[in-house]
What we know:
Layout lengths: L4 H6 L5 E5 L3 H12 L3 E5 L3 H8 L10 H10 L3 E4 L2 H5 L3 E4 L10 H7 L4 E4 L6 H6 L3 E4 L8
Parallel strand pairs: 1-2, 1-4, 2-3, 4-5, 5-6
Amino acid sequence: MRFNYDEIQSKKILMKIAVVGTGYVGLVTGTCFAETGNNVICVDIDEKEVERMKNGEVPIYEPGLKPIFDRSIREERLSFTTDLKAAIKDALVICTEWSEFRVIDLEHFHNYMDKPVIFDGRNLYDLDKAREAKITYISVGRPEVYV
C-alpha cells in the first residue's frame, strides 16, 4: 500500500500510540503507525538502544523501514523513551515484547490513561485482570474485553 504523504501531513494527528518494546515487532509496528499520521512513542528498557534510535539509527534489519523511520522522526510523529509511565499517559498502548512486561500491574495502566485501552500483540495479560482493572483490552486470537 502506498500512502499519499501530502494528504497525511494535511490531517491532524490521528491518535497517540505507545508501543511497548522496540524489537522487530515493536519498531516496525510503531514506525508504520507513525507513517500513517499517528503520534507514536516507542518504549524500551534498553537506554542505549533508545539513544541509538533517537539519533536516527535503526537497530534491526527490515527492508524499507529506514526511510519511513527517518521521515516519521523528522516530522515528529515518532519518538523513543525508557519512561513507561509517561509514554502510556493518554495513549493507546500496544504491547509487543519481553516477559518483563507480563508483571506490569494493569491498574497502573488504568491510572495513567484517561481512556485505558491496550492492544496486546503477544497475549501477555489475563483477560479477567484486564476486566478487573477496567481496561479495554484487545489481544490476538482471544475474546476482547470492553469496559
